[in-house]
Design a protein that fits this description.
This protein is mainly β. Helices cover 2% and strands 47% of the residues. The chain contains 1 helix and 43 strands.
């Protein structure tokens, strides 16, 4: 039986509103500032933030945010998210444009990067360099309304011992920068003499500039999980924060900071006096990190447990915590099923010395809860208890990577993931599937081009957030699209990284900029 590939969009009008925002503060969009450039004549300040990990096509990639702010009220006017670290910015002398230079060394040969042009009125950004790898742009200066001076690193470091201290400088001329087409600046345009090109660190100056305008800025990044307690408190994990608690009044009650990466998964104890917190996923090859139990009164550590291997912390249907094996392939092998009647995970079965895997060697596996004694400490299954239920991929010839998921009240699974391809995520290569565990057959499949960052459901709707800022409401029964929209705060796009259904029609959404949105859907 072939699964239903969902394309139908059900006509449905909804009212989506953000009631309150936790963790809001000036310069929220950029996090830790590394560069600040002002335009005193227009009362604007451009601030670039440090590159941070975000959910991406192959697990977690990274982006470097740029925000443009009005200096009188610190309102954010535009946001750009660059693929590479930002080294230079320059406001056009007359037009509402900001040139942004980015780049990085690829680790083996090339200095890659982009010259971006952000339209401050439209809020859109254009990548201007023709070559696919671009150039690492180190500086920018408008000489006049038509000429832009562009210092760059060399294209590569082949037989070039001075490649990290020297570069080239070009002057690019365009009669009207408002209409410059994408990828229209050629190698000829960027040809120029060899010059000394120091890589200046401007972080301290940027922090001083931001602090001079507001002492309330805080480099919060990437809410990883968010949950609500019965007394109205909200707890969350973030990069650099193991766990934090917010009172119903909107005031932060306490925070447990963590310089080793921060927290990830949260499982609230049934008596709501404590919570188990899983650590941020370590890089491949790093030993498993401990999960900790924290008091919800003040964040004090009560217990600590180190798993036998890499694991995800999950809350089972009985409310107790468990450790689901997370595999060896980073986010791509990390299946995390909320509220499961079993401990589900994605299992790879490989022969000794085997390198390449086929679809038939990856399984949806589970452990029956009764085989693992119930306890307040997370249950950790052993290899002898594992039951391979069915092939993880339901499509012949496809290898499916893991993602977030839930178990429905009738015992079916809804989970997200991507289809493996040697050139990265392909059109339609991201999926959300409703799947009967008894047969392995999908009841419906929703496909799109962006990776899902999180999902949850209520009695009628599956809510899915994506790494381009979109949230989609799918019909729980058949996967039809009920509605879809891109998230924005005060008109500025945000990217969701965490999602929990607090109650039917009410969502808690965490974002890459460290904010928690309390949302209502009617």
């Amino acid at each position: 039986m072939q699964p239903l590939i969902v394309e139908k969009i059900t006509t449905m009008t909804i009212s989506f509103s953000i009631g309150r925002i936790l963790g809001d503060r000036p310069f929220a969009e950029v996090g830790d500032p590394v560069l600040a450039v002002d335009d005193k004549g227009r009362g604007l300040l451009a601030v670039a933030g440090a590159r941070v990990a975000v959910a991406g096509v192959h697990g977690f990639g990274s982006t470097a945010p740029v925000g443009v702010y009005a200096t009188d009220d610190l309102a954010c006017r535009a946001v750009l998210r660059a693929r590479y670290p930002v080294h230079a910015m320059a406001f056009h002398p007359r037009l509402p444009l900001l040139a942004v230079g980015t780049g990085d060394y690829d680790g083996g040969y090339f200095f890659e990067g982009e010259l971006l042009l952000l339209d401050l009125e439209a809020g859109t950004a254009t990548s201007l360099i023709e070559h696919a790898l671009g150039r690492q742009v180190l500086g920018l200066e408008w000489l006049n309304e038509q000429e832009l001076r562009v210092p760059m690193a060399p294209p590569d470091d082949w037989q070039d011992k001075d490649a990290r201290s020297e570069g080239h400088v070009a002057v690019v001329c365009r009669p009207d920068w408002r209409v410059v087409p994408p990828r229209s600046i050629t190698g000829y345009d960027l040809a120029g003499p060899r010059v000394t090109a120091p890589r200046a660190d401007r972080r301290e100056g940027a922090r001083q500039t931001v602090s001079g305008l507001s002492t309330d800025w805080d480099p919060r990044r990437n809410v990883r999980a968010v949950e609500e307690l019965s007394d109205g408190r909200i707890v969350a994990t973030l990069d650099g924060v193991q766990l934090e608690s917010w009172l119903p009044s909107g005031q932060r009650q306490w925070v447990v900071r963590d310089d080793d990466g921060g927290g990830r998964d949260i499982v609230i104890a049934r008596d709501e006096r404590s919570a188990w917190v899983g650590p941020a996923r370590p890089p491949r090859g790093v030993p498993a990190q401990a999960v900790v139990r924290l008091a919800l009164q003040d964040g004090a550590r009560l217990d600590r447990l180190t798993p036998a291997g890499s694991a995800s912390l999950v809350r089972c249907a009985d409310g107790l915590p468990a450790l689901a094996p997370a595999g060896w392939n980073g986010e791509r092998s990390r299946l995390r099923i909320r509220r499961g009647s079993r401990i589900y995970f994605r299992e790879t079965v490989r022969a000794k010395g085997e390198q390449n895997l086929g679809p038939d060697e990856v399984w949806l596996a589970a452990v029956e809860p009764e085989s693992v004694p119930a306890a307040e400490r997370p249950r950790e299954p052993t290899e002898a208890e594992v039951n391979r239920l069915l092939p993880y991929s339901w499509t012949s010839g496809e290898t499916h990577f893991a993602g977030p998921g839930v178990e429905t009240p009738d015992g079916d699974l809804i989970h997200a993931g991507t289809v493996h391809h040697g050139h990265g995520l392909q059109p339609g290569g991201s999926f959300v599937v409703g799947r009967a565990v008894t047969s392995g057959e999908p009841t419906w499949v929703f496909r799109t081009d962006r990776k899902a960052t999180e999902l949850d459901h209520d009695t009628e709707t599956v809510y899915v957030t994506y790494d381009d800022g979109e949230i989609v409401g799918l019909d729980l029964r058949d996967g039809n699209v009920r509605w879809r929209r891109h998230l924005a705060v005060a008109g500025v796009p945000v990217v969701p990284t965490a999602l929990t259904v607090a109650e039917p029609g009410r969502l808690l959404i965490g974002t890459t900029d460290g904010r928690i949105l309390d949302c209502s859907i009617v």
